[in-house]
Amino acid sequence: DRDTDKKRIEELLEENMVLEIAQKQSMNESAHLGWELEQLSKSTDLADSEKSFVFELNECASSRILKLEDNQSLQNTIQELRDASLTSRESSLKFVELEKENQQLSKKIEKLQNQIEKEKQSNQDLETLSEELIKDKEQLQVVMETLKADKDRQIKDLKQENDHL
User: From the record, what ranges are coiled-coil (predicted)?
Assistant: First the structure.
């Protein structure tokens, strides 16, 4: 019986190793083994050696189930990290695109600011020129009035001289 039990334990251990590789199957088979162990422990006509075998087998199956659950938890964590990494990469790519767009907009803004500065300078130059032209016009008007007054005086003088002659 013990040899048979030992062989059975070895077979179950091999089965459990296979179960670790294929997790879904292993979870179902481990649950089934647990059920079988419970059925065996419930039976009253088991010998003490069979009870200890069942207990050992139950502990082994339980530890395998825990390991499989841990593996599943680790795989879930790995998947979450992969998803987060992909999201991070996508965000990084979007950030790079936005940064490029921002640089382009900054260059456009700089060009527009330069154009505005040129326009301001041009307007100042035109204002200065306009002021100079207004001063020149005023001076020319003064000169014209002076010339007109001189002309009128000369005409008057010439008329007087003519009358005198």
Answer: 95-164
pLDDT values of the chain reduced to their tens digit, one per residue, 165 residues: 889 999 988 888 887 677 667 677 666 777 788 788 878 877 644 455 555 666 776 677 677 777 777 778 778 888 877 777 777 777 777 888 888 888 998 899 999 999 999 988 988 988 898 899 999 999 999 999 999 999 999 999 999 999 998
CA 123 to chain centre: 44
DSSP-based helix, strand, coil % in the chain, nearest 5: 95, 0, 5
Are 20 and 26 in contact by the 8 Å Cβ rule? The answer is yes
Q: 3-state class of 47 per DSSP?
A: coil
